[in-house]
C-alpha cells in the first residue's frame, strides 16, 4: 500500500504535506506533487495535512491511474522536502473538478 496524490493538487500545490513526511518521498512537478510509492511507508501523516484532500490511500477506489502517474513521475521529478510559496492563483483552483486536463509533465524546481 502507498498514499497517492490525485488531480486535486494540480495548480494548488500548497505543500503542507511535504514537511510532515518522515521519509521525504514527495516529488515536485511544475503544477502538482507526487508520492513515490516504493518510498512511502504508509504512515498516513500527510493525508489530513492536505487542505484540498488530494492525498488518498491507494486502497480507495478509482485511483489506479493516479497511482501509475505518481510512480512514473516520482522517478523523474526532483525531491521536495520543504514548503514553498503556492502559485499566486492557487485559491482560484481550489476545489475545481476535473483538473486532469491541466496536468503538466514538466518538473518543478525541488529544493
Ligand atoms: S498539501 Fe495537498 S494540494 Fe498541497 S502540495 Fe500537498 S498534496 Fe498537493
Ligand atoms: S503516508 Fe507517510 S510516508 Fe507516505 S507520503 Fe504520506 S507522510 Fe510520507
TrEMBL record:
Residue ranges with Basic and acidic residues bias: 84-100
The keyword Iron is assigned to this record: yes
Keywords assigned by UniProt, alphabetized: 3Fe-4S, 4Fe-4S, Electron transport, Iron, Iron-sulfur, Metal-binding, Repeat, Transport
A Pfam family that the UniProt record links to this protein: Fer4_4
InterPro entries: 4Fe4S_Fe-S-bd (IPR017896), 4Fe4S_Fe_S_CS (IPR017900), 7Fe_ferredoxin (IPR000813), Fd_C (IPR022569), FdxA (IPR054829), RnfB_subfamily (IPR050294)
Cofactor(s) annotated in UniProt: [4Fe-4S] cluster; [3Fe-4S] cluster
Region annotation Disordered: where it falls in the sequence: 84-111
Molecular functions (GO terms): 3 iron, 4 sulfur cluster binding; 4 iron, 4 sulfur cluster binding; electron transfer activity; metal ion binding
Function according to Swiss-Prot or TrEMBL: Ferredoxins are iron-sulfur proteins that transfer electrons in a wide variety of metabolic reactions.
UniProt name for this protein: Ferredoxin
Source organism per UniProt: Pseudorhodoplanes sinuspersici
Phylogenetic lineage: Bacteria, Pseudomonadati, Pseudomonadota, Alphaproteobacteria, Hyphomicrobiales
Amino acid at each position: 500500500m502507498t498514499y497517492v496524490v490525485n488531480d486535486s493538487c494540480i495548480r494548488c500545490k500548497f505543500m503542507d504535506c511535504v514537511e510532515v513526511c518522515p521519509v521525504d518521498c514527495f516529488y515536485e512537478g511544475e503544477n502538482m506533487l507526487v508520492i513515490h510509492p516504493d518510498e512511502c511507508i504508509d504512515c498516513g501523516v500527510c493525508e489530513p495535512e492536505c487542505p484540498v484532500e488530494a492525498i488518498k490511500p491507494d486502497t480507495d477506489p478509482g485511483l489506479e491511474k493516479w497511482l501509475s502517474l505518481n510512480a512514473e513521475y516520482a522517478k523523474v521529478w526532483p525531491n521536495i522536502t520543504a514548503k514553498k510559496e503556492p502559485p499566486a492563483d492557487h485559491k482560484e483552483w481550489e476545489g475545481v473538478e476535473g483538473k486532469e486536463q491541466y496536468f503538466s509533465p514538466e518538473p518543478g524546481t525541488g529544493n
